[in-house]
Amino acid sequence: MSSLAALVTGGTGRLGGAIASRLEAEGFRVKAAGRRDGDLATTGGARTLVEQAVAGLGGLDLLVNAASAGFAPKPVEEVEEADWDAALGATAKGSFFVTQAAAPYLRQSELGLVVMIEDVAAYQPWPSFAPHCAAKAAQAMLTRVLARALAPDVRVCGIAPGPVAVEPGQEERRAAETLLGRVGSPDDVADAVLFLVRSRFVTGTTIVVDGGRLLR
Ligand SMILES: NC(=O)c1ccc[n+]([C@@H]2O[C@H](COP(=O)([O-])OP(=O)(O)OC[C@H]3O[C@@H](n4cnc5c(N)ncnc54)[C@H](OP(=O)(O)O)[C@@H]3O)[C@@H](O)[C@H]2O)c1
To answer: What distance in Å separates the CA atoms of residue 114 and residue 100, rounded to the nearest whole number?
Structure first.
């Protein structure tokens, strides 16, 4: 049996890179995409990436939307149009148009799965991250909208990580925000992706992988 094919956007990043490595270790053929493979804030970049990935992989069974930009704290009074465009671009627009372009191929797959890498910021208002929270809330809604739009052929699920790849020096502060008293790792998110690959009756919902951060 030939292996399954996966496209991981943000595959050169911290979470996307770990997810791509784990999928490869599990036998997937993987395209781990970064900005050099196309700007996902544009519809053309999104469509070209999918076409090239499908050509290189010989099909598509799994799409992981893990590309994101614009995660930087700023008071509401100082947010500019460029901050808004950066946050919405790859996360909201990119997740939508990559999924739109991938859908015909995923429909032909026996697996047919889209995983949105969301953020607990989709569900929790952070005053210093207004564009990021809005972009993540948009992406989280797309998880649900696209699950309905692409059913029953394609499942669409989300994973909302908490602190799993934190900036150096921030570990202690970020650990204190969780119920478990520690930060997680990108591999915790990769575990959840593999759970969704195996869990064929799960669609349209989000797994929170945050050590209990949302409850604090
Ligand atoms: N880090 C965490 O602890 C954490 C927690 C919760 C949620 N998340 C979510 O997990 C996802 C990944 O986060 P991360 O920490 O792994 O981010 P990261 O290390 O900053 O990586 C971002 C990835 O997105 C790609 N990218 C950015 N803008 C793009 C564009 N316009 N077109 C194409 N690709 C673009 C980057 O490509 P290049 O490498 O080419 O720049 C890179 O591969 C994000 O959605 C983030 O919100 C992360």
So the answer is: 11
| Mutation probe of ligand 1 site: the residue of 8, 9, 14 with most atoms within 8 A of C-beta | 14
The pLDDT score that the predictor gives to residue 1 is 44
Decide if 131 contacts 70 (C-beta within 8 A).
yes
How far is the centre of ligand 1, averaged over its atoms, from the C-alpha of 13 (Å)? 5
Could you report the per-residue pLDDT of 61-105, keeping only the tens digit for each? 999 999 999 999 999 999 999 999 999 999 999 999 999 999 999
For residue range 185-204, what is the model confidence (pLDDT) as tens digits? 999 999 999 999 999 999 99
In this structure, the residues whose C-beta lies within 6 A of any atom of ligand 1 are: 10, 12-16, 34-36, 39-41, 66-69, 71, 89-91, 117, 119, 161, 163-166
Predicted TM-score (pTM) of this structure: 0.98
Asked whether 159 and 206 are in contact (CB, 8 A), the reply is yes
Helix, coil or strand: residue 133: helix
CA 177-166-98 angle, to 5 degrees, is: 110
Residues in the chain: 216
